[in-house]
Design brief:
Strand content: 25-35%
Helix content: 25-40%
Strand order of the largest sheet: 7-8-1-2-9-10
Largest sheet: 6 strands, antiparallel
Number of helices: 7
Order of helices and strands: EEHEEHHEEEEHHEEHH
Number of strands: 10
Length: 224
């Protein structure tokens, strides 16, 4: 019921995850990323602990492939799980259990891995990878390019209702954690609207956290 992308920006070292599903609040369960370490998506009969454990393993030095292999070997019910990972070297790995729902597929490349289940077409993940690798600019924009490519290739077998995007970079917290938890409209386009608003303010929010004396005006009443 889900398709997602985990990716690394080779230029900035930023990591990101974007995901969409017919289920509500998909990003709350499926998207995981840690600055300087990597990004993980845990989906299909989701076990959220696979996301946090995957990051812990990569933080301790495991590659994406090694982390995914350990999760497959030690996690509960791996035949039901789908896990995607990208590491600090830009290497990627995927596990898709044989009991993934409906039509499922996966694709990966340098700095990116994409996967989905209950898809309308097996070509969806490869379309996402191709779109990401062909794109330029901010990682958030590139993730949305990949998600739109998924829709153009057929997306999920039914309508998607939620979407989310998480970005991490050189600080200890996500610099963007945007979600559309339920909508009758296209959640990916709703997410894109949020990103258009948030993108220009992202750096200012980081500066305010690190050193408010160097921050630009807050732009609120009473801010002198």
């Amino acid at each position: 019921m889900t398709f997602s992308i985990v990716a690394r920006c080779a230029r900035t070292g930023m990591f990101g995850v974007a995901v969409s599903s017919s289920s509500p609040a998909v990003a709350a369960r499926c998207a995981y990323a840690q600055a300087g370490v990597g990004a993980v998506a845990s989906q299909n009969v989701t076990d959220p602990t696979l996301g946090t454990r995957g990051l812990e393993l990569m933080a301790r030095g495991a590659s994406a492939a090694e982390a995914v292999a350990i999760l497959k070997r030690t996690g509960a019910y791996p035949e039901y799980r789908q896990v995607l990972a990208v590491d600090a070297a830009g290497l990627s790995a995927i596990h898709s259990g044989p009991k993934a729902l409906g039509v499922w597929a996966e694709a990966r490349g340098e700095n990116v891995a994409c996967g989905g289940n209950l898809l309308a077409d097996k070509r969806v993940p490869q379309a996402m990878v191709d779109a990401f690798l062909a794109s330029e600019g901010h990682l958030g924009d590139r993730l949305l390019d990949a998600m739109r490519a998924a829709l153009a290739a057929g997306g999920e077998a039914g309508p998607v209702r939620s979407a989310g995007m998480k970005l991490v970079r050189d600080v200890a917290w996500p610099v963007a954690d945007l979600r559309c938890d339920w909508t009758e409209a296209c959640p990916i386009e709703e997410l894109a609207k949020l990103w258009d608003i948030y993108k220009s303010q992202l750096d200012a929010y980081v500066t305010r956290a690190i050193n408010p004396t160097e921050a630009p005006s807050y732009g609120v009443p009473g801010d002198e």
